Here is the input.
Amino acid sequence: MTNPHGSGAVLHSGAPLREAKLAVVLLHGRGGSAQDILGLSSAFNLPGVAYFAPQAAGHTWYPLSFLSPREANEPYLSSALAKVESVVNSIEQAGVERSHIVIAGFSQGACLSTEFVASHPARYGGLIAFTGGLIGPPGSLQFAEAATGTELANTPALLCSGDPDPHVPWQRVEESASVLRAMGASVTTKRYPGRPHTITAEEVALGRVLLAEAMKR
Here is the structure.
């Protein structure tokens, strides 16, 4: 199977896309579901926002750790990135510019969100990574090497994580933030010592601020 996520459902909540001031693509974590991550739409509680959540095949975007060699997570990783791209493209085709599209996720979905924005650079409405970072083994983050500082055109990015986290080392969060900054993003990181692998109310509030600001642009 070369495109395992290609036929996965995409759930929608919030405002109808034709009336939305902002669109948010929500990516669930390993073992989670599109329905689960759509709960963030109620938590954010912002009118005028359309939320879209694609479902991963087998509830997993890629089989191994995000720190594994990339080829070990294929073809699932490429299929996951293509799925996000198809959702973003469909939103754009409906008339919402990429500068009003936010890519957000938790855990494995946060890793996929960060990887998508870095590998498909543009001016986005924002990136929200609740416990995640760029994908690949230590020493393999290449995006910054060719960066001119303009690729992400001041896209606001929020990277939050507990430390220590059982799945996401804080060092990778910091490395990812550095790469995104080198590509021209405006990055905020929040480290929560001892926080379990979850999304806190404070993180939701920070995400809500990012979304509210994106709606004003």
Summary: The domain at 10-216 is CATH 3.40.50.1820 (Rossmann fold). The chain has one domain: 10-216.
